[in-house]
Specification:
By secondary structure, the protein is an alpha/beta fold. The chain folds into three domains: about 20-230, 3-Layer(aba) Sandwich (Rossmann fold), CATH 3.40.50; about 240-325, Ubiquitin-like (UB roll); about 330-405, de novo design (two linked rop proteins) (Up-down Bundle). Helices cover about 40% and strands about 15% of the residues. The protein is built from 17 helices and nine strands. The strands form two sheets. Strands 6-5-9-7-8 form a five-stranded mixed beta sheet. Strands 3-2-1-4 form a four-stranded parallel beta sheet, sandwiched between helices. Helix 5 (about 95-100) packs parallel to helix 7 (about 130-145). The longest helix has 17 residues, at about 370-385. It is globular and about 65 Å long. The two termini are about 35 Å apart.
């Protein structure tokens, strides 16, 4: 099924040479930034708030409010940073990689707008080390932007300065969490910080820092070029805009699909093709290892923040893994818990010990008693762990119990 839905993030995909800055400019590149630079930073932040854009990395925090907090948390002369979280480590998620390799200049434009909006003149793109093609493409785009004065001093005679660097991540899952990422960016071991303070208050080198993922930042140029009301024409009132879904597993055409909020899981899966002949969907895993198990009975559920919240579910980063009826869900649960055990940084005891206990228990027969024990352990971890990794096992375990009760 062809994806005929409106496109915001992927609107240039397949139309431009990703390495060509001229192609990007010929297809309305940097128009969002040029519109933004004519406004005050406060007006830009207000436009983002009016758009209803929420973080596309998983937490879904309102982007405009995050910008406002970063811009106003300290005196105006305080140095501030913009950091792009491109450390895409959630299993089943590969949308940000797709953006960086298909339209790298759009990410740079988004960071320029974010920098101007909060009063920052320095940005960093923290890219997962395994993303070799993304790293090469982004570095080329940055060099081209410096060469053509879209980065550096007095950008296009606007009076705005902005510098941008690439930082290669350390290959740790926990570095996808914003404060742990900042520790790594400072050259330290990738261990979580205690919140508060939050990055908007004390982030990179204790300065106010805006941390957003790739997809979130690439929405900014569209909003500034066409306006918040145009952005709100897509999606729903509470979940405006579009979302990139990384669909994989038992489908004919795994890949990245941009869809408006409000379509159903079934409609999204139709884009990726049907299962093999005679096969049926047994379960979806939505949001990656830290996501929810969803049964076939909920395929008609709309993909919106509000409808998922009503059903005590989350979308996460937009990963949808499809499992057919031959898949052993107990084995899948073991793999998830082994992943958390392997990726725990070990800084806090509840996570370091708890992930090991969960994995060892998962290797035993999956009885109701054993599952209940794992959920209680995961609840304790969620209450006491320092970062989202220790809080994550509870999500797949509870949804497994809820929909695939033994």
């Amino acid at each position: 099924m062809e994806n005929k839905f409106p496109k915001i993030v992927t609107r240039r995909f397949g139309m431009i040479d990703p390495l060509s800055i001229d192609d990007f400019i010929q297809h309305d590149g940097f128009q969002g930034f040029l519109q933004a630079i004519r406004k005050s930073p406060a007006e830009i932040r207000e436009a983002i708030k009016q758009s209803g854009l929420r973080g596309r990395g998983g937490a879904a925090f309102p982007t405009g409010i995050k910008m406002e907090a970063t811009a106003t948390s300290a005196p105006q002369e305080t140095k501030r940073f913009v950091v792009c979280n491109a450390d895409e480590g959630e299993p089943g998620t590969f949308k940000d990689r797709y953006i960086m390799e298909k339209d790298p200049y759009a990410l740079i434009e988004g960071m320029l707008i974010a920098g101007y909006a909060i009063g920052s003149h320095q940005g960093y793109i923290y890219i997962r080390g395994e993303y070799l093609s993304s790293i090469t493409t982004i570095r080329h785009a940055i060099n081209e932007c410096y060469k053509h004065n879209w980065l550096g001093k007095n950008i296009q005679a606007t009076g705005f300065d902005f510098n941008l660097e690439v930082f290669i991540g350390g290959g740790s899952y926990v570095c996808g969490e914003e404060l742990t990422l900042l520790e790594s960016l400072e050259g330290k071991r990738g261990h979580p910080r205690i919140k508060p303070p939050y990055p908007a208050q004390k982030g990179l080198w204790q300065k106010p820092t805006l941390v957003n993922n790739v997809e979130t930042l690439v929405n900014l140029p569209y909003i500034l070029q066409y306006g918040a009301s145009k952005f709100r024409e897509y999606g729903t009132a509470e979940s405006p805009g579009t979302k990139l879904l990384s669909i994989s597993g038992s489908v004919e055409k795994p890949g990245v699909y941009e869809v408006p909020f409000g379509i159903t899981f079934k409609e999204a899966l139709d884009l990726a093709g049907s299962l093999s002949k005679g096969k049926q969907i047994k379960a979806l895993l939505v949001g990656g290892a830290a996501g929810n198990f969803i049964p076939p009975s909920l395929l008609d559920l709309p993909i919106t923040y509000e409808s998922l919240a009503e059903n005590k579910l989350t979308l996460g980063s937009g990963a949808i893994m499809v499992f057919e009826d031959s898949v052993d869900l107990h084995e899948l649960l073991q793999n998830i818990l082994h992943f958390f055990k392997h990726e725990s940084c070990g800084k806090c005891v509840p996570c370091r010990i708890g992930t090991t206990l969960l994995y060892e228990k998962a290797k035993e027969p999956l009885t109701q008693e054993n599952l209940a024990w794992m959920i209680e352990e995961a609840k304790y971890m969620a209450r006491t762990s320092l970062c989202p990794l220790g809080q994550s096992p509870l999500i797949p375990l509870q949804s497994f119990e809820r929909f695939f009760n033994l």
